[in-house]
C-alpha cells in the first residue's frame, strides 16, 4: 500500500475495501470510530445503531470471552418481517388471490433459542416450521404454539413420525405430510385409517429443471427425493382407491439451496404449476404450493449469479414467483394457492456473527540476526545470492527472482551435504526473503506482473493465528469452499498495512482461511492491521447463521464457543437476553466417552506415585492437581 493512502485512510476506504455495504444488506455498516455497527430501523422508520465492539466488550465483562458467537435477535426478526412483507406486497401489487405462509426449515439452525425467536417473531405473520425428522417435529410441535401457522413434514417418515403428526392434528395443529418416496403413501394411508384422522397430504415432485449453484444435485431426474410423474399418478390412484384424494392438498418441490440465478427460480415455478394444475384436474382439492428453499444470500455482495451470490433482490424473487404462478394457473382457470416457501438460509444467515481474536502472526521477512553476518570467506553460492539480491531493479524483477531462488536452493542443498553451516544457511534464507520482499514492493508499481511472480504477494503474505476452529464454527469454509465476509470489526479508520491468510487454532493444515471477498473478484489474502502491543485485535465472520452451528464438529476437541444473544433496544441500549457458556474441557472429553472423574483419579495416582518416589513434595502435588482440575473446567480455546 502506498504511503499517501496510509496517511489519508478513512472509514469510507475500509467500507469499500471490505465491501461492507454490498453484503451487509443494510444491517451492517461502520461508525465514525472505525467499528462495525449493526443498523436497525425503528417502527417509525428512524434508525439506530450499535457497535459490535460494545457488544463484545459487554460480553467479555460478563465472562464470555473470545471466540464468541453473537446472535442478534433483531436481525432474525427483521429478516422474517422482510420476507413476509415483501411477499405480501407482491401479492397485493399483482392482485394475487391468496396469501403467503412461510415455514422455517429447522435443519438450517436447530438451536432452541433460534427456533423460539423465529416462532415468536413469526407469530404475527403465521410463519411456521418445516420438520425433516421426528426430532425436528417434536421440537416444532412444542415451540410453535400457533395453530394458524403450518408445520410441513419432509424427509423419510416411519409410522411413529406419522402417528405423532396425526395426533397433533387432533389438537388443531396444521400438519402437512409431504410424500417424498412412493412407499410412504401406503404408510400414511394405513396410519390415517387406524387413527381415524384425515391427513393433509403433500406430494414432493422431482422437477426436470436443473439449477446452477453448488447444490444443483437436489434437482433433476437423479435427485434423491421426490416423485416422478409416473409415481405421482400412481399416488393419485392409490389415494382415490382409498377415498382419500380429498386429502391431497399440497405440491412441494425443492430446487436446492442457494440458487444464485433468478431464471432458475422462475423455471422451477413454471414447471411446478403445470403439475399443480393437473392435480387439480385429477380431482385433488390442492390449495397449497410449496416452493421449498433456495432463496440465496449474497455472501460476497457481488449481485451476480456466482455460487456465493445471487442476481436478484428479495422484491424480484417475490414478484417473479407470484407472476409465474398467476401466469400459468390463470390460463388454466385454476384458483390461486397459498404460497409456501421454506427459506432457511435467507432467514437466519444475517443474525449470527462469530467474533474472534488474533493470537499471533508470522511474517515472511528476514529475521534480525545479531551475531551472523556474511563475510568474504563464506561459500561462493552465498556470495552469489548476495549479489543477486543487491542488484534488483524494476527492470529485472523476474531475472533477479530466478537467480535468488536458484542460489538459495543451491545453499540448501550444500547444507544437506554438510558443506555450509547452519549460520550460513540462515543468512541465505534471510537474504532470499529480503530480496523477495523488495521484488514484491516493486511489483506494486510495475505495469505488468511477470507470470512467474503473480503468486509472490500470496507466498509472502503473513499468517494471522485466530483463536477459533474453522471445523467447529464455519465448517462450510473447509467442506465446500464457502466464502463468508471476514474482516476486522474495529480500527477501520486505520489503513490495513498487512496482507494475510488466517490459520485457526486446530493443528490441522486444513484449518485455514485463504479465500476472501475482494473488490471485484475473490482474493487469496486479506488486508489486515498490524497487531498493537497489549491490545486485542478482533475479527468477525459474518452471515454465518445458516447451517454452520450444528454441522460443526469437535476437531482437536475444540468445543462449542461461548454464545450471547442480544436484543438492541430503540434507545441503542443492548439487552443480553441469553448467554451460553461454551463447552468446557470436561464437556468435550465426555462427548468422546472419557469420564472426567476417572481421568482425575488416574492423574491423582500418577502424582501420588511421584510423591512416593521423591520427585515432588506433597505441597507440589496439591498444586499440580489444582492446575489439572482448573484446566478440566476451563474453555477449550486460548484463554488470556
Ligand atoms: C434444506 C432445505 C430447505 C432450506 O433451503 P434454504 O436454501 O436454506 O432456504 C428447504 N426445504 C427443504 C426440503 C430442504 O431440504
UniProtKB/TrEMBL annotation:
<dbReference type="Pfam" id="PF02784">
    <property type="entry name" value="Orn_Arg_deC_N"/>
</dbReference>
<feature type="active site" description="Proton donor">
    <location>
        <position position="507"/>
    </location>
</feature>
<dbReference type="InterPro" id="IPR009006">
    <property type="entry name" value="Ala_racemase/Decarboxylase_C"/>
</dbReference>
<dbReference type="GO" id="GO:0008295">
    <property type="term" value="P:spermidine biosynthetic process"/>
</dbReference>
<dbReference type="InterPro" id="IPR022653">
    <property type="entry name" value="De-COase2_pyr-phos_BS"/>
</dbReference>
<dbReference type="InterPro" id="IPR029066">
    <property type="entry name" value="PLP-binding_barrel"/>
</dbReference>
<dbReference type="InterPro" id="IPR041128">
    <property type="entry name" value="Arg_decarbox_C"/>
</dbReference>
<feature type="domain" description="Arginine decarboxylase C-terminal helical">
    <location>
        <begin position="585"/>
        <end position="638"/>
    </location>
</feature>
<dbReference type="Pfam" id="PF17944">
    <property type="entry name" value="Arg_decarbox_C"/>
</dbReference>
<keyword id="KW-0460">Magnesium</keyword>
<keyword id="KW-0663">Pyridoxal phosphate</keyword>
<comment type="function">
    <text>Catalyzes the biosynthesis of agmatine from arginine.</text>
</comment>
<keyword id="KW-0456">Lyase</keyword>
<dbReference type="InterPro" id="IPR040634">
    <property type="entry name" value="Arg_decarb_HB"/>
</dbReference>
<keyword id="KW-0745">Spermidine biosynthesis</keyword>
<keyword id="KW-0620">Polyamine biosynthesis</keyword>
<dbReference type="InterPro" id="IPR022644">
    <property type="entry name" value="De-COase2_N"/>
</dbReference>
<feature type="modified residue" description="N6-(pyridoxal phosphate)lysine">
    <location>
        <position position="107"/>
    </location>
</feature>
<protein>
    <recommendedName>
        <fullName>Arginine decarboxylase</fullName>
        <ecNumber>4.1.1.19</ecNumber>
    </recommendedName>
</protein>
<keyword id="KW-0210">Decarboxylase</keyword>
<dbReference type="InterPro" id="IPR002985">
    <property type="entry name" value="Arg_decrbxlase"/>
</dbReference>
<dbReference type="GO" id="GO:0046872">
    <property type="term" value="F:metal ion binding"/>
</dbReference>
<dbReference type="Pfam" id="PF17810">
    <property type="entry name" value="Arg_decarb_HB"/>
</dbReference>
<feature type="domain" description="Orn/DAP/Arg decarboxylase 2 N-terminal">
    <location>
        <begin position="84"/>
        <end position="349"/>
    </location>
</feature>
<dbReference type="GO" id="GO:0006527">
    <property type="term" value="P:L-arginine catabolic process"/>
</dbReference>
<dbReference type="InterPro" id="IPR000183">
    <property type="entry name" value="Orn/DAP/Arg_de-COase"/>
</dbReference>
<comment type="similarity">
    <text>Belongs to the Orn/Lys/Arg decarboxylase class-II family. SpeA subfamily.</text>
</comment>
<dbReference type="GO" id="GO:0008792">
    <property type="term" value="F:arginine decarboxylase activity"/>
</dbReference>
<keyword id="KW-0479">Metal-binding</keyword>
<feature type="domain" description="Arginine decarboxylase helical bundle">
    <location>
        <begin position="376"/>
        <end position="456"/>
    </location>
</feature>
Amino acid at each position: 500500500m502506498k504511503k499517501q493512502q496510509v496517511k489519508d485512510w478513512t472509514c469510507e476506504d475500509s467500507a469499500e475495501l471490505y465491501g461492507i455495504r454490498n453484503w451487509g444488506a443494510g444491517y451492517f455498516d461502520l461508525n465514525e470510530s472505525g467499528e462495525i455497527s449493526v443498523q436497525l430501523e425503528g417502527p417509525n422508520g428512524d434508525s439506530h445503531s450499535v457497535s459490535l465492539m460494545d457488544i463484545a466488550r459487554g460480553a467479555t465483562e460478563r465472562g464470555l470471552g473470545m471466540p464468541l458467537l453473537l446472535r442478534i435477535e433483531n436481525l432474525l426478526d427483521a429478516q422474517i418481517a422482510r420476507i413476509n412483507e415483501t411477499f405480501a406486497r407482491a401479492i397485493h401489487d399483482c392482485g394475487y388471490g391468496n396469501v403467503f405462509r412461510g415455514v422455517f426449515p429447522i435443519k438450517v439452525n436447530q438451536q432452541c433459542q433460534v427456533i423460539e425467536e423465529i416462532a415468536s417473531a413469526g407469530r404475527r405473520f403465521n410463519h411456521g416450521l418445516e420438520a425433516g425428522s421426528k426430532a425436528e417435529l417434536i421440537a416444532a410441535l412444542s415451540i410453535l404454539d400457533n395453530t394458524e401457522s403450518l408445520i410441513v413434514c419432509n424427509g423419510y417418515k416411519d409410522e411413529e413420525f406419522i402417528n405423532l403428526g396425526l395426533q397433533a392434528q387432533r389438537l388443531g395443529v396444521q400438519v402437512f405430510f409431504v410424500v417424498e418416496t412412493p412407499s410412504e403413501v401406503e404408510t400414511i394411508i394405513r396410519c390415517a385409517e387406524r387413527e381415524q384422522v384425515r391427513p393433509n397430504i403433500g406430494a414432493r415432485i422431482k422437477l426436470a429443471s436443473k439449477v446452477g449453484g453448488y447444490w444443483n444435485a437436489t434437482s433433476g431426474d437423479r435427485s434423491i427425493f421426490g416423485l416422478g410423474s409416473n409415481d405421482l399418478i400412481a399416488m393419485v390412484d392409490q389415494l382415490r382407491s382409498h377415498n382419500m384424494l380429498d386429502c391431497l392438498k399440497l405440491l412441494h418441490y425443492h430446487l436446492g439451496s442457494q440458487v444464485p440465478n433468478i431464471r432458475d427460480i422462475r423455471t422451477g415455478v413454471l414447471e411446478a404449476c403445470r403439475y399443480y394444475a393437473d392435480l387439480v384436474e385429477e380431482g385433488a382439492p390442492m390449495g397449497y404450493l410449496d416452493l421449498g428453499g433456495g432463496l440465496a444470500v449474497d455472501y460476497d455482495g457481488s449481485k451476480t449469479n456466482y455460487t456465493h451470490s445471487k442476481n436478484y433482490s428479495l422484491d424480484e424473487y417475490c414478484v417473479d414467483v407470484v407472476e409465474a404462478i398467476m401466469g400459468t394457473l390463470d390460463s388454466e382457470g385454476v384458483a390461486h394457492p397459498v404460497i409456501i416457501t421454506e427459506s432457511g438460509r435467507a432467514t437466519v444467515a444475517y443474525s449470527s456473527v462469530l467474533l474472534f481474536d488474533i493470537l499471533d502472526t508470522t511474517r515472511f521477512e528476514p529475521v534480525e540476526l545479531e551475531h551472523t553476518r556474511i563475510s568474504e570467506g563464506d561459500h561462493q553460492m552465498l556470495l552469489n545470492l548476495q549479489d543477486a539480491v543487491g542488484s534488483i531493479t524494476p527492470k529485472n524483477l523476474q531475472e533477479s527472482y530466478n537467480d535468488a531462488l536458484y542460489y538459495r536452493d543451491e545453499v540448501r542443498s550444500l547444507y544437506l551435504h554438510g558443506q555450509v553451516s547452519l549460520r550460513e544457511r540462515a543468512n541465505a534464507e534471510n537474504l532470499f526473503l529480503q530480496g523477495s520482499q523488495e521484488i514484491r514492493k516493486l511489483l506494486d508499481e510495475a505495469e505488468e506482473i511477470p507470470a512467474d511472480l503473480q503468486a509472490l504477494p500470496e507466498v509472502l503474505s503473513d499468517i494471522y493465528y485466530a483463536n477459533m476452529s474453522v471445523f467447529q464454527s464455519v465448517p462450510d469454509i473447509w467442506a465446500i469452499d464457502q466464502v463468508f465476509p471476514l474482516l476486522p470489526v474495529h480500527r477501520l479508520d486505520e489503513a490495513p498495512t498487512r496482507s494475510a491468510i488466517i490459520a485457526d487454532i486446530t493443528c490441522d493444515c486444513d484449518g485455514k482461511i485463504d479465500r476472501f471477498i475482494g473488490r471485484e473478484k475473490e482474493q487469496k489474502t486479506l488486508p489486515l492491521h498490524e497487531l498493537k502491543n497489549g491490545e486485542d485485535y478482533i475479527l468477525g465472520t459474518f452471515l454465518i447463521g445458516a447451517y454452520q452451528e450444528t454441522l460443526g464438529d469437535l476437531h482437536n476437541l475444540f468445543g462449542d464457543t461461548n454464545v450471547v444473544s442480544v436484543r438492541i433496544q430503540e434507545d441503542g441500549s443492548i439487552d443480553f437476553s441469553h448467554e451460553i457458556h461454551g463447552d468446557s474441557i470436561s464437556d468435550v472429553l465426555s462427548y468422546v466417552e472419557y469420564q472426567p472423574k476417572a481421568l482425575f483419579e488416574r492423574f491423582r495416582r500418577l502424582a501420588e506415585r511421584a510423591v512416593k518416589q521423591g520427585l515432588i513434595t506433597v505441597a507440589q502435588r496439591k498444586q499440580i492437581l489444582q492446575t489439572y482440575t482448573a484446566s478440566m473446567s476451563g474453555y477449550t480455546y486460548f484463554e488470556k
